[in-house]
Design goal:
The protein is of the alpha+beta class. It has a single domain (4-136), classed as Thiol Ester Dehydrase, Chain A. The chain contains 2 helices and 8 strands. A hairpin with a 3-residue loop joins strand 6 (99-109) and strand 7. The longest helix is centred in the middle third of the chain and has 16 residues, at 58-73. The chain is globular.
Amino acid sequence: MPRTEIESGEFAGWFTDVHEPYEYESAGPFYYRVDEYGPVSAFRAQRKHMNADGVVHGGCLMSFADVSLFTIAQGHLNGPGVTVAFNSEFLSGALEGSWVEARGEVLRAGRSLTFVRGLITSDGTPCMNFSGTIKSRPKA
């Protein structure tokens, strides 16, 4: 995954992929790193992420979860990959200004398929659980 390290601000020391227009410019920006607890993805909920009810739009959380599948699985993938299955359940809403974070685990990693599950929290409160399957693609 191409990486650009953030040098200042709230996400200093985190990474993002500025070459992914959807996840960096449109849906995100989303950030990731590995800390003492393992891989983690995060973003700060902004006005552009909200729905009409004043919580982060479900589609935004689903996009974030999809990106997070790859963050969680980063040490297990054999090259680039694509999401071939995705499941999620919404547990609660995330408010504007909240710290939204995803962590999880790889359940199984084979030669071509990697199975991942995770939990998104908003300021520490669970707001969505998710799982997905990533299929490795041959390197171009």
